[in-house]
Specification:
Layout: H1 15-42, H2 50-62, H3 74-83, H4 91-113, H5 118-129, H6 132-136, H7 144-160, H8 163-176, H9 180-190, H10 194-220, H11 267-288, H12 291-303, H13 310-317, H14 334-353, H15 359-389, H16 396-409, E1 415-418, H17 422-427, E2 430-433, H18 439-448, E3 453-457, H19 458-463, H20 469-473, H21 475-480, E4 484-490, E5 498-503
Parallel strand pairs: 1-2, 1-3
Antiparallel strand pairs: 3-5, 4-5
């Protein structure tokens, strides 16, 4: 049956009911836990944003004010708390993401149980537990799974009628990602709460956002709604990677963060690019949630929408901000779609059962409809296996080795210029961006701004900084270059090479201060 057998609120479920509930949840939970552990063991858990989150966590613990931090403080604050219990710079952030990723599985089951029976709720949780992208993003130091857990914890509280708690939890989600504002609006629109309920939810949300707003005021020196205000600008229909440059003739003015949320709001540009950008985000959604799952989810939405429609507003808002067309931005809707898919599968099974003339066929229909959902999950693995199994953005063992060498042989206060942040992160040193100017401009800018080391990776050299080829590959050129000195070089295979150059100062000139 599709209908829920959940114990009414306020009553105590018999022990055998609680045991059966736990057993139905245990399957997806154990499967999701095992998959996440396996995937996490295959990657380093670092992306370009990870080093920023860790540095912000360290600044929070030290009480350091960082007026140019490009991320909101909620996730770094959780890393800072975890670092009180766990050692190292990597484990605390990875542990937070991992825990939250597992929590999302349980929340999906809980959300489904408000409307579905145990087997169909287990199906919804299983789709989340075994989804390749949701699983792999539970391992890196990224804010995705934390935001997902806070989002679906909020929606579960709304569905259970705990509106003040829901608004408070959504305020915490706002500290992690500003999309929580959209979820607040969606919860009010789709939650069927009545005026009083909407008022309680939004009032609790606003109160819970005050600490974040106060922190941003202290950090930035001005009132802003988010540290990511620079993303609110006219997005291009064909967004391409913008390389950092320092030459006045080539510098990209779009690299300068917007001081306030509305400073780049251009309605005409937003309208012109909205539909093309929406199509590209939807293409990522279909890749992550293939057509069998999408068909079941749309059926479930048609049957019973409710507050689980709120995350879909985040998807609708993506074309309004200047973010890359990356599948990770659509992941927030997948747990809701999983519940809708289980709802659609259950209804389809029940509907066809009433028309099946043979009893054995009727008994097999739930397995058939569940199989449709699992077939869609298999299709998702077919589309996303490479991203799940080869998650790292570079040869991480070699980058770690280079960073650890630099940590052992350089001063802790050194400044490291690199297009990627991985070697500086492993070295425990400050990172500055390697610009995409001509060779002499890069070297002179490094000397002028107090950079101590320049790191060049083979795969970066080939794809992004060919102007540095002679420095890395031509010994005669290096011998003539008096401003840089190679201090480290290692290569084990294709695109695995890493070279570190020390910036040589003029004799007696001393070292200028940091930029």
């Amino acid at each position: 049956m599709r209908t829920s057998s959940r114990t009414p609120r306020g009553s105590v479920a018999p022990r055998h009911h609680r045991l059966r509930e736990a057993l139905w949840l245990a399957g997806p939970l154990c499967a999701g836990l095992a998959l996440r552990l396996w995937l996490a063991s295959r990657n380093a858990g670092l992306t370009m944003d990870s080093a920023t989150y860790v540095r912000m966590a360290e600044d929070l613990l030290a009480g350091v004010r960082e007026p140019t931090a490009p991320a909101d403080p909620g996730f770094p604050a959780l890393i800072a708390l975890a670092s009180r219990l766990l050692p190292g710079r990597e484990l605390p952030g990875r542990a937070v993401s991992f825990l939250m990723g597992v929590v999302v599985i349980g929340l999906t089951y809980g959300l489904a149980r408000t409307r579905l029976s145990r087997p169909w709720s287990a199906l919804a949780a299983g789709l989340v537990a075994l989804h390749p992208l949701l699983a792999v993003y539970s391992g890196p130091i990224m804010s995705e799974t934390t935001f997902h857990a806070l989002t679906y914890g909020t929606l579960l509280l709304v569905m259970l009628g705990h509106l003040a708690g829901a608004g408070g939890l959504l305020g915490i989600a706002y500290a992690v990602r500003p999309e929580a504002i959209v979820l607040a609006v969606g919860s009010a629109l789709f939650g069927r709460l009545g005026r009083r309920g909407v008022g309680i939810l939004l009032a609790a949300f606003l109160v819970a956002t005050l600490p974040t707003l106060a922190y941003l005021r202290w950090e930035r020196g001005a009132w802003v709604l988010s540290a990511k205000a620079f993303l609110v600008r006219p997005p291009a229909a064909k967004r391409k990677l913008e390389e950092f440059r320092v030459s006045p003739s080539t510098a990209n003015p779009g690299q300068i963060p917007a001081p306030a949320l509305s400073s780049r709001w251009d309605p005409r540009a937003l309208a012109a690019h909205y539909l093309p950008n929406l199509r590209r985000h939807l293409a990522n959604l279909v890749r992550a949630w293939p057509w069998p799952l999408l068909a079941l989810s749309l059926l479930g939405i048609g049957l019973r929408g409710g507050v689980l429609l709120a995350p879909l507003l985040v998807l609708a808002g993506l074309p309004l901000v200047d973010v890359m067309f990356d599948p990770r931005f659509v992941l927030v809707v997948l747990p809701a779609l999983a519940v809708f898919a289980a709802d659609g599968a259950g209804w389809l099974s029940e509907r066809v059962q009433t028309m099946a003339p043979v009893a054995v066929v009727r008994r097999g229909l739930p397995a058939v409809t569940a199989g449709i959902a699992l077939f869609g999950l298999a299709m998702s693995w077919g589309s996303n296996t490479a991203e799940a199994l080869v998650f790292d953005d570079g040869p991480m063992p070699q980058l770690r080795a280079a960073g650890e060498w630099l940590r052992a042989n350089g001063e802790p206060t050194s400044i490291v210029m690199d297009r990627k942040s991985y070697v500086p992160f492993y070295a425990g040193m400050r990172h500055v961006q390697l610009p995409d100017d001509d060779y002499d401009t890069i070297v002179e800018w490094a000397r002028r701004t107090g950079v101590n080391y320049i790191v060049v990776e083979e795969y970066v050299l080939r794809a992004f900084r060919p102007q540095l080829r002679a420095l890395v590959l031509d010994p005669a050129f290096r011998a003539r270059e008096s401003r840089l000195r190679m201090v480290y070089s290692w290569r084990e295979g294709l695109d695995s090479g890493v070279a570190i150059f020390e910036v040589v100062r003029e004799p007696g000139g001393g070292r200028p201060g940091p930029p």
